[in-house]
């Protein structure tokens, strides 16, 4: 990353008064604060992780903040995406986030990128920034971010949260001291998409813990203070509120090279896995079930009518307690088979139905 000039004397008195607690901080001070003011940071995703990252970076005094997101605010986002409010439902997340950040830090320049980041546009968008914060929730976006950042020589502060668990690291292809590790070096080739918050849920405050930690890492990288998590993966378990640190090995430079890095840790023998991947194929025991007496088929997939004879329900409606009449009329001890394309949403629905009292519930995938 290019060295940011401190530009001593560039902070206006009002801004210095605002960030006075940073100026008093041992090992930080005016020079670091002026580097933040000169920084350009882009955050991928204005959701559960992007919300605390953007809030804290704006409050900390980052001069320019870019926001990349192509989604709109939905009511189910408000449980964890604290940048947005009820009044923002239906608005573009970039517009909602930009308004909130301008209210928090009027001197910051906020740049909205209301589009999906892809391999085709990643380099063009990221190239205007000093650092990337990746709070995206798909492998496709993560690998596009990683490849573009590596080609541009940009550091990436990465984080993820799912269920009760979170992970944070700093990846930088140009890092010194053998710490030039990228996301694919740790997690290997891009896998199929897997579980998400929409299918297995997420603890709301865990997003704040992980997102705030990502903001801390970004500030350290931008200012040259502290010890950023380069070459380390920080793993968070909200059940115990414990953090584990996993030391990552640099990629092999031997002639046989291109071997994914083996993480090593005295406490953990192996790297915590990414969200569970999708099933490789349809289950072997998935015959046509629409005519089986006493069995209720419940389709929670993305395409209504994909399963002949099944009752369709949106996973979000089930979570809200809006159960279809056919399910309400079905005995609590009667068999229910929940289906979706990949078996991901159906597993979430199985959990919801069991919590509602149905005892004989199984979930299945209908596609490979």
Characterization of the model:
The protein has 368 residues and is of the alpha/beta class. It has two domains: 13-247, Rossmann fold (3-Layer(aba) Sandwich); 296-365, 3-Layer(aba) Sandwich (Oxidized Rhodanese, domain 1). 31% of the residues lie in helices and 17% in strands. The chain has helices at residues 13-18, 20-23, 29-38, 50-60, 93-104, 122-126, 139-152, 183-187, 197-200, 204-223, 315-319, 325-328, 344-356, and strands at 40-44, 64-68, 109-113, 131-134, 156-162, 165-171, 232-237, 242-247, 296-299, 311-312, 336-340, 361-365. It has an eight-stranded mixed beta sheet with strand order 3-2-1-4-5-6-7-8, sandwiched between helices. It has a four-stranded parallel beta sheet with strand order 10-9-11-12, with helices on one face. The protein is elongated.
User: From the coordinates shown, what is the CATH architecture of the largest domain?
Assistant: 3-Layer(aba) Sandwich
Gross morphology is: elongated
- CATH topology name of the largest domain, in short, is Rossmann fold
Q: Averaged pLDDT, please?
A: 85
Radius of gyration: 23 Å
Instruction: Kindly provide the name of the CATH class of the largest domain.
Output: Alpha Beta
In terms of DSSP E residues, the strand content is 15-25%
Poorly predicted tracts of residues: 254-287
The CATH homologous superfamily of the largest domain is named NAD(P)-binding Rossmann-like Domain
What keywords describe this structure?
368 residues, alpha/beta, Rossmann fold, Oxidized Rhodanese, domain 1, four-stranded parallel beta sheet, elongated
């Amino acid at each position: 990353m290019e060295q940011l000039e401190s530009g001593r004397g560039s902070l206006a008195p009002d801004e210095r008064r605002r960030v006075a607690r940073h100026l008093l901080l041992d090992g930080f001070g005016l020079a670091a604060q002026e580097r933040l003011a000169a920084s350009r940071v882009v955050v991928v995703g204005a959701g559960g992780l992007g919300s605390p990252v953007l809030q804290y970076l704006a409050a900390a005094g980052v001069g320019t903040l870019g926001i990349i997101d192509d989604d709109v605010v939905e009511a189910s986002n408000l449980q964890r995406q604290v940048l947005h409010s009820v009044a923002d439902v239906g608005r573009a997340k970039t517009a909602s986030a930009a308004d909130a950040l301008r209210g928090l830090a009027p001197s910051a320049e906020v740049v909205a990128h209301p589009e999906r980041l892809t391999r085709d546009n990643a380099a063009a968008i990221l190239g205007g920034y000093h650092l990337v914060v990746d709070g995206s929730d798909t492998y496709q976006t993560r690998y596009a971010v990683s490849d573009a950042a590596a080609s541009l020589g940009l550091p990436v502060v990465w984080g993820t949260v799912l269920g009760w668990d979170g992970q944070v690291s700093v990846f930088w292809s140009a890092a010194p001291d053998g710490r030039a590790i990228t996301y694919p070096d740790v997690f290997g080739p891009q896998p199929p998409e897997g579980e998400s918050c929409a299918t297995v849920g997420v603890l709301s405050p865990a997003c704040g813990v992980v997102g705030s930690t990502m903001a801390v890492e970004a500030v350290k990288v931008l200012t040259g203070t502290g010890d950023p998590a380069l070459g380390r993966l920080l793993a968070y378990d909200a059940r115990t509120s414990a953090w584990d640190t996993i030391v990552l090995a640099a990629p092999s430079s031997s002639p046989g090279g291109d071997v994914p890095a083996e993480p090593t840790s005295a406490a953990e023998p192996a790297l915590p896995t990414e969200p569970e991947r999708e099933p490789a194929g349809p289950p072997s025991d998935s015959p046509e079930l629409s005519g089986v007496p006493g069995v209720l088929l419940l389709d929670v997939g993305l395409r209504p009518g994909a399963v002949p004879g099944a009752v369709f329900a949106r996973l979000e409606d089930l979570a809200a307690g809006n159960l279809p009449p056919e399910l309400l009329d079905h005995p609590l001890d009667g068999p229910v088979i929940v289906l979706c394309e990949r078996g991901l949403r159906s597993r979430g629905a199985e959990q919801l139905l069991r919590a509602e009292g149905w005892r004989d519930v199984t979930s299945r995938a209908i596609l490979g």
